[in-house]
Amino acid sequence: MQLSRGDLLSAYRTMRTIRAFEERLHLEFASGEIPGFVHLYAGEEASAVGICMHLTEVDKLASTHRGHGHCIAKGVDVLPMMSEIYGRKDGVCGGKGGSMHIAEISKGMLGANGIVGGGPPLICGAALTAKILGNRGVAVAFYGDGGSNQGTTLESLNLAKIWNLPILFVCEDNGYAEATAASYAVGGSQVKRAEGFGIPGVVVDGNDFFAIYDAAREAIEHARNGGGPSLLHLKLGRYYGHFEGDATTYRAPGEVDRLRAEHDCLKRFRNRVTEASLLEAHELDAIDGEVEKLIDDAVVHAKAAPLPTEADLLADVYVSY
Amino acid sequence: MSKKSYRQAINEAIASEMRRDPRVILMGEDVAGGAGTPGDQDAWGGVLGVTKGLVTEFGRERVLDTPLSESAYVGAAAGAAATGLRPIAELMFVDFMGVCFDQIFNQAAKFRYMFGGKAETPLVIRTMYGAGFRAASQHSQCLYPIFTHIPGLKVVLPSSAYDAKGLLIQAIRDNDPVIFFENKVQYDDIEDVPDEPYTIPFGEANLTREGDDVTIVAFGRMVKIANEAADRLEKQGISCTVVDPRTTSPLDTDTILECVEQTGRLVIVDEASPRCNMATDISALVAQEAFGALKAPIKMVSPPHTPVPFAPNLEDIYIPNADRIEKAVKAAMNYRVRETV
């Protein structure tokens, strides 16, 4: 671990922002004001933040159905994100993408993806761009245990290896692909799959920010220095359903309560840094308060923001026709 | 200006754009051929030799042989386009698009719209289409109507070597994803093609001949066959306008409607299978916008609704030919509204 005090504060703030964003969306969705599908990332914050802290603006990431956390961790502003999820004109995608396609190309965030397994091929392309332009950029493909079974993901592992692309594959394994268990649907092991393509892989505790941070640093430096792709298999847990409104009858009674009580990445972070006297509890409390205010403001802003107009319907189908 | 094949015209278009812009790269299965083999390092230049020689000039950094892995490399081309390159991906036969369609229609085609106008995807997918090669059902389809159906994609169907070069250069310079259909039976067609680069804008139809009696709208390879039919009809005193729209998306609806308004009769020739193809689409357009100009019902000439057969005699019957077009034109000419008492 080589984290400065500023890094630690920043990591906590970003993880807390994601948590607050998602917890608030859960409540707002239940109130019926948010249109469409929303898939929450709460519980998986250590992954997005532990990895994205190593990325710069030149680096790219492709996300999953659960894209808000990656978006925030890659530096996209919360206000236009919230507006986007409410379908407003000042949303980060002008209200044309919504939660499932939230993206900000200028920040290197190539989009949440409505298609499971859609991201890894795109990330091969982003990495190819970095390699050809010679800008030392790295590209990160996040996908879930569900996405790991798509042919696109396996084909991308192969392509990344044979072209020696600067890629980090991150399998965020929350144990469920929609309502089906990874233990049922995933044959073999993620790491051995990667090794089968000649790509080094490692299993990491997905609730341990520090373990993720260290593993990601090594893999990303390796890629940046021309060493090619590697894979992290993160075992973590999601606190909500596959989508908002999912009754999660497929989960064991008390399962989420245990996850929250015993494996929560934010609590673990807080305990670790306060016990080691790296940060004070009151500093973290202050961040909690600031983040709540930020999310409140974002919701108030989004609800009041103008809707796209009818003229926006036909805009941006093409660059030019 | 010199005599060149449709194949050479395409090769020249790619080469000139790769020389002009270092961001243009080419990838696909065997686009060079020979990667990693002990033999010739430019072994194939694509399965029919269209990109032969490019790896020699531009190297394997920019001419990338891919694994047989269409989802990964077509998606990689889309991702590279979204992040600063201008890739040309070759999808060998359009029949193979089933395995990578997600990357084309859910990813590349939608980036710009879904991301609020902030993304550009300057991607060209070159692909081969069409029957006549005795290649049977899985290597002979004309799937351009499927791509035309998807907003966000531009679809180009060059009918000649001249158009192939100009339209491909246009496609490579375009900032939208473009699907570029090359007819595999036309690669050896030879005609005058300028040596220097030139562009042909999308959405502007080409009138390959002008006449008074019937408008024939034809696509891709069918343009030549339509002109062959029109030559025969001319000798019988029937003069035809032949409209080659060149691109199905965008489609030059104005020119089609103007020609129909002038001639009052319409025959549409489309090599794609007949349900929901370009012929049905244009038929609907004309029925809605120029019904009053029609002196006869619209005639559509397409293959039967069947997979492409292998047996050469059956395949020859399958493909629309000049006889069928001639018959359709005459039927339009001979149509008389029944007098009601």
UniProtKB/TrEMBL annotation, chain A:
GO terms for molecular function: pyruvate dehydrogenase (acetyl-transferring) activity. Residues 14-308 form the Dehydrogenase E1 component domain. Coiled coil: none annotated. Keywords: Oxidoreductase, Pyruvate, Thiamine pyrophosphate. GO terms for biological process: pyruvate decarboxylation to acetyl-CoA. Pfam families: E1_dh. Its cofactor is thiamine diphosphate. It catalyses: N(6)-[(R)-lipoyl]-L-lysyl-[protein] + pyruvate + H(+) = N(6)-[(R)-S(8)-acetyldihydrolipoyl]-L-lysyl-[protein] + CO2. The pyruvate dehydrogenase complex catalyzes the overall conversion of pyruvate to acetyl-CoA and CO(2). It contains multiple copies of three enzymatic components: pyruvate dehydrogenase (E1), dihydrolipoamide acetyltransferase (E2) and lipoamide dehydrogenase (E3). This is Pyruvate dehydrogenase E1 component alpha subunit. The lineage of its organism: Bacteria, Pseudomonadati, Pseudomonadota, Alphaproteobacteria, Hyphomicrobiales.
From TrEMBL, chain B:
Pfam families: Transket_pyr, Transketolase_C. Residues 4-189 form the Transketolase-like pyrimidine-binding domain. GO terms for molecular function: oxidoreductase activity. InterPro entries: THDP-binding (IPR029061), Transketo_C/PFOR_II (IPR009014), Transketolase-like_Pyr-bd (IPR005475), Transketolase_C (IPR033248). Keywords: Oxidoreductase, Pyruvate. The keyword Transport does not apply. PANTHER family: ACETOIN:2,6-DICHLOROPHENOLINDOPHENOL OXIDOREDUCTASE SUBUNIT BETA, PYRUVATE DEHYDROGENASE E1 COMPONENT BETA SUBUNIT. This is Pyruvate dehydrogenase E1 component beta subunit.
